[in-house]
Recover the amino acids of this structure.
């Protein structure tokens, strides 16, 4: 992809908090990373996980617990959450990969429901109320993430924003490198024609598992970031509705494109926040988008855009 | 806690009560998946729709038609709701699902997921999430039956009875009759069956309609017991999926028996450790999938 | 690629943290307008007892006050938190950061209440909770800017528990909603039952929003307890009561007691089913002329009689505005000081006072559901059996774990 496009996006990201409500912007980044991580599995390996919220929300709880109850600094908290998600991904992946297609999706859903149940019952999670009052803390023990800087009369949490943006860039870069590497090529081969890839000698299960762990760890990192931004980890984060949402974001933006899922995430989160006034109609609209995408818009808008411009986005 | 005969038997009855709902719903799903290869995520929403047809037929239909004293009674609803929802199902299949035939099954799942959100969202807008009461329970089914070890509402006995009849009846038609054999053949080898002069697309459409009609039927049965609410389907649907997967996704008898069995497992969990009652089925699903991947009654693909 | 990204991000953050910008200016009269936010369940299980009706209560108060305070306009905005703490907290944060909301009320559902109250404490904005029940709000979760206005689980447990035990209901079995609110309600009630010589023979915890209570009810029946205490609310309580009737439970020997019930629940159940049931409330529309007058005006707008949450919201808003007028500013510290020192006396709260822990102490009422033959109107559902003074009903400061209470 064009260097200039990346630079433009980077510049936009750096300047965003001055134009857009920073907390909202950070939420967009979290979900964009979540969707991009999910797409590693769906778009590039061809595996539909219907329980990805378990990694997103699970990491949020773990990071929240580490930072609030064990007093760890935020970067260690996020590291902890990410590692937890990766480990959980290893467990879930090992079980799920034994099955194919719809059964794979069902196993991930079932295991996610078990994680939901644990999030409900374990003492530190706060059950229905969620894990509340998570402090943002001091990054590396030095930088106060809660510090607000007043620009034009509005206090902006700039340290937190740039930390979030840095993490987003890191996660996104990892995904990008994974896709454009020999490893990524094998994943694509598995997606296209699994028996063929197997006959060529590739240990298909191994590759799938590694992709799964990578995807879940990065989804976890997104969740960990979210818990510091909102200072809350709740059951919504591990519910199957959130799992469904990330599928929608990826589908809408474009399965199998680099920027698609993130664009889809931006769209869905923006829609949800703009349409809060219409209440339950938001569910109808989201459902409608799903239906339209599946019927006529399977490439998603970035995918369609890519086809128009004749380049892979 | 004392597990007396009385306690055990009462919980068995309650478990059976829950189980028949799982059985009917998973039967519909299994029919649709087994014969059409569609993972019908909208099944829960259509179950809910069936309950609302009963409720609205009872309360609003009369005034709408200018005859305020008219109430669509319960017995009529048991027939009308499946027909109405079945017709909707036929529409869905013809206009949308058919187009996705040639693509990956997962698109069918995503489409029906989207449809479920739409239907549920519309109803959440107009109706209270905590539910409305259905007052149309017929007098003849009110009151209790003395089973010796407990007093059991007559209505629930009716529900268990009619559900078992419907379930085994459906199984019989599919597995033991000529019509059923056409259906089964039609999904395995549509071209060949078409060559015999059988209208395969029509058969498939009607099968889908029948499957969702079963869901609506369950909805009407549920209306007098549980309040009628827009989210009653979404709370059930993933559990029902688990039942179908455990039973073996193409097996009709498997879904019925597994539904009944898991209803009882859930019932017992409510006594032993109630908070886990919603999750125990998923635990079982994981174990079954690891040990017997095709499901308890499934045939290895 | 990576070095470009990370060095840019790192240098940006270092730059900004190193350069010492000035701290944000302290609010005086915030932006020339007093904004009140109503954040509550507008569409879910508790929407009938709170919901839009709460906003109606607030808007009525603003209108009655004159629409302006200290010459500046008053604006009311509302939003639905859908009983999700993350939605409540995100909305409140947005309101405090962007919309310059000065006070948030409503806040039913203890999980949401705790999240928003904490945010209010961090950002120095006032929260006047009219809907939630948890005693945590005036104990561990207290902030200098939080007020808990209408009722809590301690008052409910004490007044109902004592009344029932005193009329002979000595052995209890609890059916409890398995989350903080339900557990706290069960805990508080058990305490008082035991204090008066009763005993708790067992309990079962059910997931929030259960459709089917038959299993739990049968367990309650098997326990042989005289009283089946329902430590839940809204749709759960209604379902439990209805299904108990179906199974013939609660009719001979055993009695069902709802620990948190609202008028709207009784309306939903109907007098046939609910008659004779006793519960505790902070308000009843038919108590006296003043309440009836308010209720009539409320009914004309909302088409239903006000619950304690909704009437409480009117009273809280009215007193908030009065406090601003008395203090001469809407600065949160000054307003809180006034609120905690003035008498709260209106149709809603007789002998009301806001204590140092934010607890608004006022009379509570033991209600009983009328027999169908005694009811003369669609909303003539209850009678007041006993009035319990605030000091007796609520947790005394000596037992409080609130950080502001000096021991």
């Amino acid at each position: 992809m064009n260097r200039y496009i990346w630079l433009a996006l980077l510049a936009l990201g750096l300047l965003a908090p001055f134009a857009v409500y920073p907390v909202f912007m950070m939420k967009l980044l979290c979900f964009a990373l979540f969707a991009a991580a999910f797409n590693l599995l769906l778009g590039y390996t061809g595996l539909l996980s219907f329980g990805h919220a378990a990694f997103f929300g699970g990491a949020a709880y773990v990071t929240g617990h580490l930072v609030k109850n064990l007093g760890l600094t935020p970067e260690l908290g996020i590291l902890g959450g990410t590692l937890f998600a990766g480990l959980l991904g290893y467990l879930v992946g090992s079980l799920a990969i034994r099955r194919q297609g719809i059964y794979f999706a069902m196993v991930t859903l079932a295991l996610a429901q078990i994680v939901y149940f644990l999030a409900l019952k374990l003492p530190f999670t706060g059950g229905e109320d969620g894990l509340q009052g998570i402090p943002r803390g001091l990054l590396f023990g030095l930088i106060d993430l809660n510090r607000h800087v007043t620009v034009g009369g509005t206090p902006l949490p700039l340290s937190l924003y740039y930390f979030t943006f840095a993490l987003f860039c890191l996660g996104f870069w990892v995904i990008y490198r994974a896709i454009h590497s020999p490893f990524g090529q094998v994943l694509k081969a598995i997606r296209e024609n699994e028996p063929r890839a197997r006959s060529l000698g590739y240990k298909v299960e191994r590759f799938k598992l590694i992709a799964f762990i990578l995807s879940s760890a990065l989804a976890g990192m997104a969740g960990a970031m979210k818990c510091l931004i909102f200072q809350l980890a709740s059951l919504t984060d591990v519910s199957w509705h959130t799992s469904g949402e990330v599928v929608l974001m990826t589908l809408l933006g474009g399965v199998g494109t680099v920027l698609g899922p993130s664009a889809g995430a931006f769209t869905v989160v923006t829609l949800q926040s703009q349409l809060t006034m219409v209440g339950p109609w938001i569910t109808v609209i989201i459902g409608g988008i799903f239906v339209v995408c599946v019927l006529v818009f399977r490439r998603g808008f970035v995918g369609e855009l890519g086809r128009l411009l004749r380049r892979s986005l | 806690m004392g597990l007396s005969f009385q306690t055990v038997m009462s919980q068995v009855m309650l478990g059976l009560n829950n189980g028949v709902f799982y059985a009917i719903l998973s039967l519909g799903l299994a029919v649709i998946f087994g014969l059409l290869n569609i993972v019908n995520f909208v099944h829960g929403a259509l179950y809910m729709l069936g309950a609302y047809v009963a409720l609205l037929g009872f309360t609003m239909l009369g005034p709408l038609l200018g005859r305020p004293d008219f109430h669509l009674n319960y017995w009529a609803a048991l027939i009308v709701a499946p027909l109405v929802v079945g017709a909707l199902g036929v529409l869905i299949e013809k206009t949308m699902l058919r187009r996705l035939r040639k693509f990956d099954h997962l698109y069918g799942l995503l489409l029906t997921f989207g449809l479920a959100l739409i239907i549920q969202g519309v109803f959440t807008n107009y109706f209270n999430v905590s539910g409305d009461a259905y007052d149309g329970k017929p007098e003849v089914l009110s009151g209790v039956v003395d089973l010796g070890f407990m007093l059991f509402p007559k209505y629930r006995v009716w529900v268990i009875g009619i559900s078992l009849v419907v379930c085994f009846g459906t199984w019989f038609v599919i597995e033991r009759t000529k019509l059923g054999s056409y259906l089964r053949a039609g999904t395995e080898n549509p071209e060949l069956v078409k060559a015999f002069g059988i209208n395969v697309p029509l058969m498939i459409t009607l099968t889908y309609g029948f499957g969702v009609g079963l869901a609506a039927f369950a909805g009407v049965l549920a209306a007098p017991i549980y309040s009628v609410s827009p989210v009653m389907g979404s709370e059930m649907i993933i559990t029902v999926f688990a039942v179908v997967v455990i039973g073996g996704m193409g097996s009709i008898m498997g879904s019925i028996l597994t539904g009944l069995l898991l209803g009882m497992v859930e019932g017992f969990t409510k006594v032993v450790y109630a908070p886990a009652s919603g999750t125990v089925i998923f635990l079982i699903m994981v174990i079954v999938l690891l040990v017997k991947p095709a499901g308890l009654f499934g045939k290895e693909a | 690629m990576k070095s470009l990204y990370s060095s840019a991000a790192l240098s940006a953050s270092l730059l900004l943290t190193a350069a010492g910008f000035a701290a944000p200016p302290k609010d005086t009269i915030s932006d020339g307008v007093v904004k009140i936010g109503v954040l509550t369940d507008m569409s879910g299980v508790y929407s009938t007892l709170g919901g839009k009706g709460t906003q109606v209560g607030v808007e009525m108060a603003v209108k009655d006050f004159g629409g302006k305070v200290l010459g500046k306009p008053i604006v009311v905005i509302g939003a639905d938190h859908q009983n999700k703490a993350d939605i409540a907290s995100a909305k409140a944060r947005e309101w405090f950061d962007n919309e310059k909301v000065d006070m948030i009320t409503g806040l039913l559902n203890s999980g949401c209440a705790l999240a928003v109250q904490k945010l209010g404490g961090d950002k120095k904005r006032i929260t006047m909770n009219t809907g939630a029940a948890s005693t945590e709000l005036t104990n561990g979760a207290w902030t200098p800017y939080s007020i808990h206005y209408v009722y809590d689980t301690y008052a409910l447990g004490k007044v109902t528990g004592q009344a029932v035990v005193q009329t002979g209901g000595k052995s209890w079995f609890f059916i409890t909603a398995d989350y903080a609110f339900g557990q706290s309600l069960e805990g508080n009630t058990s305490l008082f039952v035991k204090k008066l010589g009763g005993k708790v023979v067992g309990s079962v915890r059910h997931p929030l929003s259960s459709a089917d209570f038959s299993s739990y009810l049968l367990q309650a029946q098997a326990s042989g307890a005289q009283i089946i205490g329902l430590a839940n609310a809204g749709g759960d309580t209604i379902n439990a009561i209805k299904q108990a009737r179906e199974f013939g439970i609660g009719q001979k020997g055993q009695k069902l007691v709802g620990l948190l019930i609202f008028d709207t629940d009784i309306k939903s159940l109907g007098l046939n089913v609910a008659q004779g049931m006793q519960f505790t409330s902070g308000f009843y529309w038919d108590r006296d002329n003043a309440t009836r007058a308010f209720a009539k005006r409320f009914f004309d707008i909302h088409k239903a009689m006000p619950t304690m949450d909704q009437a409480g919201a009117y009273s809280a808003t009215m007193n908030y505005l009065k406090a601003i007028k008395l203090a001469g500013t809407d600065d949160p510290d000054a307003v809180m000081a006034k609120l905690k020192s003035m008498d709260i006396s209106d149709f809603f709260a007789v002998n009301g006072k806001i204590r140092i822990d934010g607890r608004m102490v006022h009379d509570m009422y033991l209600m009983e559901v009328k027999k169908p033959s005694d009811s003369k109107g669609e909303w003539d559902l209850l009678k007041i059996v006993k009035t319990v003074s605030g000091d007796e009903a609520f947790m005394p400061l000596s037992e409080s774990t609130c950080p502001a209470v000096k021991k």
Summary: DSSP finds twelve helices and two strands in chain B. Chain B touches chain C at residues 1-2, 4, 6-7, 10-11, 14, 17-18, 124, 128-131, 133, 144, 150-153, 155, 225-227, 232, 235, 267, 270-271, 274-275, 277-278 (CB under 8 Å). The first helix of chain B runs from residue 5 to 36.
